[in-house]
Records
---
Amino acid sequence: EVQMVESGGGLVQPGGSLRLSCAVSGFTFSSYWMSWVRQAPGKGLEWVANIKYDGSEKYYVDSVKGRFTVSRDNAKNSLYLQMNSLRAEDTSVYYCARVKGVRMLNSNDWYDSFDPWGQGTLVTVSS
Amino acid sequence: DIQMTQSPSSLSASVGDRVTITCRASQSISNFLNWYQQKPGKAPKLLIYAASSLQSGVPSRFSGSGSGTEFTLTISSLQPEDFATYYCQQSYRTPWTFGQGTKVEIK
């Protein structure tokens, strides 16, 4: 059974730092791209970052570039999100998600989606 | 960035109703479009990927269609467990973006 468990959330002051972790089991972690997606209270979903299966490529939404760093430890089956210079607008539930990539018949394209998702961890940035 | 716009933002429907949710992209995204269901306090769940492919384990009353800039999610006969918020998401180009969500409520 696939399990993804986030941890590390909590209350932090503006300008502070926090490191989120996502512990994975039930699949070959080192074979998958992984993502972080967040959801502000009562709001919609926002993709935050992607990391390639070997950590060699990383992509971020503009609003976190230079402040957040995604990383992974394939030996520990773990995904991380280091968040620095936190702002009130970073307050959200942060989900880790596996990137499900499917290559359709007669196509060279990979169709990516998020599946499955962890249960989420709440980050609150407030003084 | 590619903007995703869902309509309606909310709807009220009865058990057994046919429900259709529309998602429009600000530019063509071919069929790089996914649909998710989210219930209160829970993580989203993938329903449809590549615009029309049903995720394993998802009931066949859910279907997706469309390509280019206009997409639809259809629930053929609404069940009590389907009352939730639905999101579309494009994976054509980063930043991957979501629609604002459509809340399906009990009439």
---
Amino acid sequence: EAQVTQNPRYLITVTGKKLTVTCSQNMNHEYMSWYRQDPGLGLRQIYYSMNVEVTDKGDVPEGYKVSRKEKRNFPLILESPSPNQTSLYFCASSSTGLSTDTQYFGPGTRLTVL
Amino acid sequence: AQKITQTQPGMFVQEKEAVTLDCTYDTSDQSYGLFWYKQPSSGEMIFLIYQGSYDEQNATEGRYSLNFQKARKSANLVISASQLGDSAMYFCAMREPFSGGYNKLIFGAGTRLAVHP
């Protein structure tokens, strides 16, 4: 089944404790992206990657890191999480970065930083 | 300025009736994609339907259709024969050509649809 997977689905952590949210897709997609969703602010892009070893900042990259060493994986790293990073995180992928390509989303990761 | 506007924060519909969710967009690009996603209370983001800016026919996917009026820059989602399981938040989104270092989906604020038996 074609899908985007994220792990963990739920995470409660404390300020400053490094964490990684994994994202993997099995559709051989070139483009991958991370979004966060917050009440009143909607969905905002954190980082995106057009292909392996190519990553770029989105609208809200501060406090996050990403890497794209393999085509299928695009982990999101929070080196020192803070409470304002409490959010619902989505990984998404599309075949290419073209405007006509559909982005498919993972199931989401609910992160709480205490 | 808002690039995607969904003017209906909430909508009610009776089961088995049709409902239209409004979406207007703003872009100066000629090539762009318009998308609708459904987000149920469980939180996942489910792709429903896509319309390309050059597509002359309105997109349809089962009970979903997109009423695309390019000159008016509107891309309304029509759900026919509503079901209880259609109760969710619905997002309209646009994807513009890669330029200026950004490449993303731009989302509207969403419309919460409640289907009543």
---
Amino acid sequence: DQQVKQNSPSLSVQEGRISILNCDYTNSMFDYFLWYKKYPAEGPTFLISISSIKDKNEDGRFTVFLNKSAKHLSLHIVPSQPGDSAVYFCAASAEGGATNKLIFGTGTLLAVQP
Amino acid sequence: DTAVSQTPKYLVTQMGNDKSIKCEQNLGHDTMYWYKQDSKKFLKIMFSYNNKELIINETVPNRFSPKSPDKAHLNLHINSLELGDSAVYFCASSQVFTAGQPQHFGDGTRLSIL
């Protein structure tokens, strides 16, 4: 049972435009959501996170939006750059129990075309 | 200066053999993790140690045994390797094991079983 889902396996965007990556989750106990970026043959790199008490968090070109009622979050990248081409993973964790256990989605491959 | 380093990067071996993967972090973090990324690119947690103590132990065959000699190192030993163990194994660390703490990943060890 996959608790974190990224339904778009890939996304292609023109340089300079906005990239929107989506993530859905099923477990209402999740308190934190994180986005990671992964290049081939490298490990995932932390990008940005959001707590469930917020609905938006911004860091430079990256903004994460959380809609708790819809159990949906999205990562906006604007403007998109060719160096942003990578696989993006959404991850979630819950307070209590085995804390900081990250549950990952299956990733979305973003291709930014020059 | 690599923050989380894993060795070896590639490991090719025969079914039935025993092998180890080493992980070291120089970030001064308290918590370390092992994740497995299978052929479907799904990243799933296996183990977590906090200050050398096991805190997360997912449903993993007991052929897999993690060992943490100190809080900067978390090694993974695998006995009697099977074809299904072929995957990329990622080590990660976080400052503490509080939910929402970003985890820093190594570049992975690609294990191939012949």
---
Amino acid sequence: AQSVSQHNHHVILSEAASLELGCNYSYGGTVNLFWYVQYPGQHLQLLLKYFSGDPLVKGIKGFEAEFIKSKFSFNLRKPSVQWSDTAEYFCAVSATSGTYKYIFGTGTRLKVLA
Amino acid sequence: DVKVTQSSRYLVKRTGEKVFLECVQDMDHENMFWYRQDPGLGLRLIYFSYDVKMKEKGDIPEGYSVSREKKERFSLILESASTNQTSMYLCASRPGTVGFYGYTFGSGTRLTVV
């Protein structure tokens, strides 16, 4: 069965620190990968996605993620976080054909201290 | 921008009541989804629909049903509300049936069952 693991449940960083949030998935076929962000009191928004090509994907607000197929990973990175990055981050995976749904990870709550 | 509108932001219902959660999207998306979001559990899929009058069970359909009579509207029904259905309910839509389209989420309905 498909699954997504986000091992860091809570992360606290100071402003300007670098961020890396882990995401590992379990699936036997080709996948599409996503990161979503939920700012306090707001709806979930797509941060970035990978479906083919360059495994390094750039998203909004300076975020990027790297797909490493051999490690079944899609880690989210940002070189220098800001207080406004405080949010909950969700990794998600979907198959490239035949299914209509995503599998989400349990989320990582990031708090950035000013 | 696509908008996914959920009819209620907050809802309080009594145990045993029949509860209707409504979701409307304005961009002619084929696919619509209902998730519940609980702390530490991430997003779990309740039901989804890939076309009008079509529906499929997700991972946790027990105690829920859905209705999709029109393309733009997807309703979640709690047949007899119970306290363990207290949660944040998220509706999402997506344009196609392939996996690389991102979801557009609504703002959520926080349901409390007392």
